[in-house]
């Protein structure tokens, strides 16, 4: 029997209920999210903007720079600026807003902030403009510029697609090389595409659909294609202006700031116009910002330096130090750079709520900014003015008299008993105000400072000087197609010639030779020589040397030798020093050992610095080790032309043998050539030691195998054999290698003799040979001589103070060396230098100083740097150098001046008189109350000095702002205009 059991009803799982509930909840959430993020996106985004919080950074003013008497050399002035903050509303209206801002600025003669190194000229040509005066520096800046904007990313993807981890140095260099292949035009196209400039083509009041459609159209278009379409409606200059602002926004975003400066240093009227229209200019604000200001313009510009934007190559290091690389300015040279950490202020700012237009609705928190510390210089404004004005006048006078190439110069005046610099001038000058607002540096000024037109200058130089060298010889075009200044003929405003320019001292070195000769006992104060004009010695073989005038001076002691600048006497002094000290390589340093103690160079391993706080170069005096090093370094290159010509001094003739660097050489050949040249160098570096080569044959045998290897590996050498009618074979190679090795060995012997020759110290005795020093070194040497042998550490800074005047650090005189010059030695030298200025035979100096109320000791120096053939070729003349100190019996200050191509040392002495009149003005008027009326130079350079502004130093914020500083109280101030100024840049 079959029984049918009833089916049980299936029970609902409790989990099923849970799943249903969860599904309903998730569905509700998704629906709500869709509602909030899509349908109500704009409404809620606007609400978010209304309540967004921003940090408005407030720029802190830099500390002041004062002269020794409290006159303000560098300060700050408050100026109006326009800033832009990105919000949803301001982004939508970006182009319309910018068009209005550009229009207002143009109508009022204002410039917008343009720091973009990618420029467009009046003909529409796109090019880079970097603030650097060397090609290597420009390359570095260009690479950094392109990397900052992401141009390296596509290159890296293509080259190293599957690579993980960091790139090697070689890979980075490869990317950099590829970046340099990207032209300025292609970079411009990239930015057009990157910054979505196609949106310029959107109509007013565009819809979302229109925006989407246009975005789709240009998604795969190239930057050039986008630009071509834009150029149908806009000029390329207009397009670039938008790129400038877009680029500033992007660069600022890296630092976390959403505010960028659109225009700096605008006048009050322009600020008022913008303020009236703020409701129609979303994102725009009017702010007050401190701007660096130099009341005396070019005065002491080489000392003070200037401020500028942070370059791309420096951005990383300054970001780590807390700088905003998109807006902050830093000291680039001089005191501004050397004391950047002291001068920079401490930023403050305000945390605020802003609305959709970027306007502040509520202030939440304020952090005060603090001015930087002040730097007080040792420079005296009035003496500095006299130095600069007289130097410029003298250079212009020489030019008017036919010395067209006399276009550079420097002068340094130092306190004899402290080492403090009283005046330092470097011509040509520059105005640091040109850089205080980067966007206001004109193209003309930029080119003058950093990108000179060498073709135009070179053509004019050749015409005015009669140089025999051609434009392409003197200003050759390099591999990049850029014309260069091969012989450093162009006057550079941005180079401090006083601390960085090397000058041969010429006869201004003779007092030091006298010190060495007298103190070592090689000569005495009463010793005389019969100066017949032409000098020779058994120690210098058949070589003869002569006086500058090519005539003799008769019986001459040290005093007369200085008075008439007798080369003969100092040649003789130098050779006597050499003989007295052993007539060996150590004796070659007989003068150097004294020069080092006077700060003219430094012994190996010793400090090579005057101690000054700003950047300096440091020249070296002739000495055996340095001379040997110099000739050894150059030897591996000087032998190359002779070997390539197949003829060494008409003594060795051979098939041309090439060891110069050629990029197409195989690695093996490159290595062999390098090894041979390094062998030559290392062999010469052993001259004067126990390891020096003992014989010509010995050295020839040591290199013959390397010479053979080069011959066997070099295809070019084999071609030379064929051209000489010789068949390449082992026999021929062996014969030629022997001749070449002997020629190189003979070269080594000749160079070794030149390195050890006593003629070097003889030429050193009159300031020639390898001697080259900065004007600062020379001034310090003269100060050391004047005070009897105490060499002080040079200082151009007196102290550092806080904004409240508290002294933070003082720089007191510091003795670096003490040379006990006997009184009779010092007196003999001073007497000779006194005669330089009181002898009628020295007409220029006599006219300047013979009747000067204060006795001045001096020495001229007509310093040659080459042969007459070199002068004619380059269109140059000798340096005009002059040293002096005063008063002679109780010296207070010492001076060195130089005029490049000034032709005669006396042509530089005029500047010294102006400095002495400014420094000793009170003494001169005490001696003769009518002195001012009897001296035209006193009237021009002392009476005509710019007025003091030290009375305003205490109230600097009010006294030095040229009408923009009194914003709270003067007519038309920001308060009266009701402009709620904000400070600085904004950060989220």
UniProtKB/TrEMBL annotation:
Its main location: membrane. Its EC number is 2.4.1.129. Residues 951-960 have a biased composition (Basic and acidic residues). GO terms for biological process: cell wall organization; peptidoglycan biosynthetic process; regulation of cell shape. It comes from the Bacteria. It is a single-pass membrane protein. GO terms for molecular function: glycosyltransferase activity; penicillin binding; peptidoglycan L,D-transpeptidase activity. Residues 409-604, 759-916 form the Penicillin-binding protein transpeptidase domain. The chain crosses the membrane at residues 15-35. Residues 961-977 have a biased composition (Polar residues). Residues 58-363 form the Penicillin-binding protein dimerisation domain. Residues 949-988 are annotated as: Disordered. It is found in: Cell membrane; Membrane. InterPro entries: Beta-lactam/transpept, Beta-lactam/transpept-like, PBP_dimer, PBP_dimer_sf, PCN-bd_Tpept. Keywords: Cell membrane, Cell shape, Cell wall biogenesis/degradation, Glycosyltransferase, Membrane, Peptidoglycan synthesis, Transferase, Transmembrane, Transmembrane helix. PANTHER family: PEPTIDOGLYCAN D,D-TRANSPEPTIDASE, PEPTIDOGLYCAN D,D-TRANSPEPTIDASE MRDA. This is Penicillin-binding Protein dimerisation domain family. It comes from Clostridium disporicum. The gene is ftsI_2.
């Amino acid at each position: 029997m079959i029984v049918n059991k009833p089916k049980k009803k299936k029970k609902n799982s409790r989990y099923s209920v849970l799943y249903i509930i969860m599904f309903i909840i998730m569905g509700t959430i998704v629906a709500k999210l869709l509602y909030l993020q899509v349908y109500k996106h704009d409404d809620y985004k606007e609400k978010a903007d209304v309540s967004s919080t921003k940090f408005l950074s407030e720029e802190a003013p830099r500390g002041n720079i004062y002269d020794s008497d409290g006159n303000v050399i560098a300060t700050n002035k408050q100026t109006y600026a326009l800033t832009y903050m990105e919000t949803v509303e301001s982004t939508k209206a970006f182009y319309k807003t910018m068009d209005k801002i550009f229009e207002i600025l143009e109508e009022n003669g204002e410039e917008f902030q343009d720091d973009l190194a990618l420029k467009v000229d009046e003909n529409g040509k796109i090019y880079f403009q970097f603030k650097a005066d060397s090609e290597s520096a420009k390359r570095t800046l260009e690479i950094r510029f392109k990397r900052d904007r992401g141009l390296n990313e596509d290159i890296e993807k293509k080259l190293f697609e599957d690579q993980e981890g960091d790139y090697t140095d070689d890979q980075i260099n490869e990317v950099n090389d590829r970046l340099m292949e990207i032209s300025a035009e292609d970079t411009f196209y990239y930015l057009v595409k990157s910054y979505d400039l196609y949106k310029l083509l959107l109509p007013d009041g565009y819809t979302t659909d229109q925006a989407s459609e246009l975005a789709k159209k240009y998604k795969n278009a190239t930057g050039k294609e986008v630009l071509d379409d834009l150029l149908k409606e806009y000029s390329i200059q207009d397009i670039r202006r938008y790129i400038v602002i877009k680029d500033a926004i992007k660069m600022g975003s890296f630092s976390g700031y959403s505010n960028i400066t659109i225009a700096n240093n605008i006048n009050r009227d322009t600020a008022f116009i913008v303020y009236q229209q703020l409701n129609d200019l979303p994102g725009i604000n009017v702010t007050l910002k401190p701007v660096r200001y130099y009341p005396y313009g070019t005065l002491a510009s080489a000392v003070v330096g200037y401020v500028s934007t942070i370059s791309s190559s420096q951005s990383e290091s300054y970001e780590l130090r807390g700088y905003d690389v998109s807006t902050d300015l830093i000291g680039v040279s001089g005191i501004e750079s050397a004391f950047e950490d002291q001068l920079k202020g401490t930023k403050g700012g305000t945390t605020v709520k802003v609305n959709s237009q970027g306007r502040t609705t509520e202030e939440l928190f304020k952090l005060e900014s603090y001015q930087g510390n002040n730097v007080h210089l040792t420079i005296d404004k009035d003496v500095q003015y006299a130095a600069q004005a007289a130097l410029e006048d003298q250079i212009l006078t020489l030019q008017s008299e036919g010395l067209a190439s006399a276009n550079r110069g420097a002068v340094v005046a130092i306190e004899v008993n402290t080492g403090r610099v009283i005046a330092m001038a470097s011509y040509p000058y520059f105005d640091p105000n040109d850089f205080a607002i980067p966007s206001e540096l004109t193209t003309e000024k930029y080119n003058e400072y950093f990108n000179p037109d060498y073709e135009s200058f070179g053509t004019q130089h050749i015409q005015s000087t009669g140089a025999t060298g051609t434009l392409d010889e003197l200003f050759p075009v390099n591999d990049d197609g850029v014309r260069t200044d091969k012989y450093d003929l162009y006057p550079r405003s941005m180079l401090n010639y006083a601390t960085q320019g090397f000058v041969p001292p010429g006869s201004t070195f003779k007092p030091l030779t006298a010190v060495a000769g007298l103190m070592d006992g090689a000569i005495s104060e009463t010793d005389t020589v019969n100066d017949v004009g032409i000098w020779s010695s058994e120690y210098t073989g058949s070589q003869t040397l002569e006086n500058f005038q090519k005539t003799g001076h008769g019986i001459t002691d040290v005093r007369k030798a200085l008075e008439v600048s007798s080369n003969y006497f100092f040649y003789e002094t130098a050779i006597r020093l050499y003989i007295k000290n052993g007539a060996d390589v150590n004796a070659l340093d007989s003068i150097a050992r004294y020069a080092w103690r006077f700060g003219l160079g430094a012994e190996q391993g010793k400090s090579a610095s005057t101690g000054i706080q700003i950047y300096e170069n440091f020249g070296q005096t002739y000495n055996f080790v340095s001379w040997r090093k110099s000739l050894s370094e150059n030897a591996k290159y000087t032998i190359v032309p002779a070997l390539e010509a197949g003829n060494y001094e008409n003594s060795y003739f051979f098939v041309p043998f090439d060891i110069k660097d050629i990029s197409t050489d195989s690695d093996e050949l490159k290595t062999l050539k390098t090894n041979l040249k390094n062998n030559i160098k290392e062999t010469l570096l052993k001259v004067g030691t126990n390891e020096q080569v003992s014989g010509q044959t010995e050295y020839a045998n040591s290199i013959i195998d390397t010479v053979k290897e080069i011959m066997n590996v070099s295809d070019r050498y084999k071609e030379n054999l064929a051209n000489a009618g010789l068949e390449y074979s082992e026999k021929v190679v062996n014969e030629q290698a022997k001749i070449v090795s002997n020629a190189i060995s003979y070269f080594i012997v000749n160079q070794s003799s030149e390195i050890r020759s006593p003629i070097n110290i003889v030429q050193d005795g009159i300031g020639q040979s390898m001697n080259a020093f900065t004007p600062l070194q020379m001034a310090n040497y003269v100060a050391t001589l004047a005070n009897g042998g105490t060499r002080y550490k040079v200082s151009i800074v007196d102290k550092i103070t806080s904004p409240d005047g508290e002294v933070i650090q003082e720089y007191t005189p510091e003795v670096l060396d003490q040379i006990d010059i006997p009184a009779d030695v010092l007196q003999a030298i001073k007497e000779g230098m006194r005669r330089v200025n009181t002898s009628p035979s020295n007409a220029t100096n006599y006219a300047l100083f013979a009747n000067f109320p204060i006795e001045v000791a001096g020495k001229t120096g007509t310093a040659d740097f080459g042969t007459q053939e070199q002068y004619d070729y380059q269109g140059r003349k000798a340096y005009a150098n002059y040293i002096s100190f005063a008063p002679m019996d109780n010296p207070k200050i010492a001076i060195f001046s130089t005029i490049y191509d000034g032709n005669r040392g006396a042509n530089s002495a005029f500047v010294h008189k102006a400095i002495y009149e400014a420094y000793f003005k009170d003494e001169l008027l005490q001696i003769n109350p009518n002195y001012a009326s009897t001296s035209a130079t006193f009237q021009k350079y002392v009476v005509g000095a710019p007025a003091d502004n030290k009375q305003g130093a205490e109230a600097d914020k009010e006294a030095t702002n040229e009408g923009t500083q009194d914003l709270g109280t003067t007519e038309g101030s920001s308060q009266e205009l009701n402009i709620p100024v904000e400070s600085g840049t904004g950060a989220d």
